[in-house]
Design goal:
Layout lengths: L1 H6 L1 H12 L1 H4 L9 E8 L5 E9 L7 H5 L2 H4 L4 E7 L5 E3 L1 E4 H4 L14 E6 H4 L6 E8 L2 E9 L4 E7 L6 E2 L6 E8 L6 E13 L5 E15 L9 E3 L2 E3 L1 H10 L7 E13 L1 H11 L21 E17 L1 H9 L10
């Protein structure tokens, strides 16, 4: 469930854009209308699924900033949240919990962070499976306020890379090309992000040896391809080996203490089609030529805002540099100043 901590911020982006642009979506002189704002991310590897359900509305007498701090305005009091297995019709009612007590505190910011209501279903009860489609419903009495569907992403794997990542020591040179392969037989994922975690120790000014990690985005938003129309896919995204040293040179400050490179881990995250569309919409109006209009994506019905999609993660750990690559890190022009030993 650790992914929840990294992704729950999306709801705040959606809600913040509503508050910032509320004059485009609401009439401030009308009677306030409740707008459901829903966020959920399905992940097979989790032990539970958490759904965030909140309200967004305009008020003639209160600012959006004031409403964001008002728990009575932010949370529904009487909604029921259900997950339904589309194939069988089996229905599950989610339990209302405080995310702060579940290990998922809400970050400080525009919105009130306590209480932090979420709706939870344990996977021991839901029993999710790869490719399983579910429908999320938010109900008020017998009325369905909004709903959306998504599928769980199944398993995939990291393939041998080039140079050979299965060897005890990986040769990376200024001239080499790095390849991280992946293969999947599941049918849901739309795109992949590949991240390399660079693990090292640093000797601080007080003499303490501290373990640290840098996360290098090797490739992001890689659109899934198919093999001759088959849902199975095999991909080998490449980067120049020297790019890793450029990243280290840009990311690390010069320090007086020594650094000791230990190893690196390869992580691949897969994302569902709804998340892919959400990211495309969010990036569609950025940059120097962007307008002031904030694009909005939602896959929820009845005018609600939000996102229901899926992600999955696989990681392989403990790749080490061979002697030539370690020497390049210590003595190469790009990273010599970083004091790796």
């Amino acid at each position: 469930m650790s992914f929840v901590k990294n992704i729950l911020f999306v709801l705040s982006v959606i809600s913040a854009s509503m508050i910032a642009g509320c004059s485009n979506d609401f009439s401030l002189i009308d009677t306030p209308k409740e707008i459901p704002v829903v966020y959920g991310m399905l992940r097979l590897q989790d032990t539970a699924t958490y759904i965030r359900v909140e309200r967004g509305f305009a008020d003639a007498t209160k600012s959006g900033i004031e409403l964001a701090k008002d728990t009575n305005a932010l949370f529904h009091k009487d909604v029921v949240v259900k997950l339904i297995k589309v194939a069988t019709g089996e229905s599950f009612t989610l339990q209302k919990v405080d995310g702060n007590k579940e290990g998922y505190p809400r970050a400080d910011g525009m919105f009130v962070n306590a209480p932090n209501y979420l709706y939870k279903i344990k996977h021991s009860i839901l029993a999710p499976q790869a490719d399983m489609k579910v429908r999320l419903e938010v109900r008020q009495a017998e009325k369905v306020l909004t709903q959306a569907t998504a599928q769980f992403i199944g398993d995939y794997e990291i393939l041998d890379g080039f140079p050979n990542f299965d060897a005890p020591f990986v040769p990376i040179t200024a001239q080499s090309q790095l390849t991280v392969g992946l293969r999947s037989d599941e049918k849901v994922a739309k795109f992949y992000d590949i991240r390399v975690h660079l693990n090292y120790d640093e000797i601080e000014a007080n003499g303490n040896r501290v373990a640290k990690t840098l996360a290098w985005d090797y490739k992001t938003r890689i659109v899934r391809t198919s093999n001759a129309g088959s849902p199975s896919t095999a991909m080998y995204p490449e980067r120049a080996g020297i790019d890793m040293f450029h990243y280290l040179a840009d990311a690390l400050p010069v320090v007086s203490g020594a650094r000791y490179f230990k190893n690196f881990d390869i992580e691949i995250n897969a994302g569902g089609p709804e998340l892919f569309d959400f990211l495309n919409v969010a990036l569609a109006n950025t940059g120097i030529t962007a307008s002031q209009e904030i694009p909005t994506y939602t896959n929820f019905s009845n005018g609600a805002y939000g996102l229901l999609s899926s992600r999955s993660r696989v990681i392989r750990r403990g790749y080490r540099l061979n002697d030539a690559a370690a020497t390049l890190l210590k003595d190469g022009d790009l990273t010599r100043k970083l004091n790796f030993r």
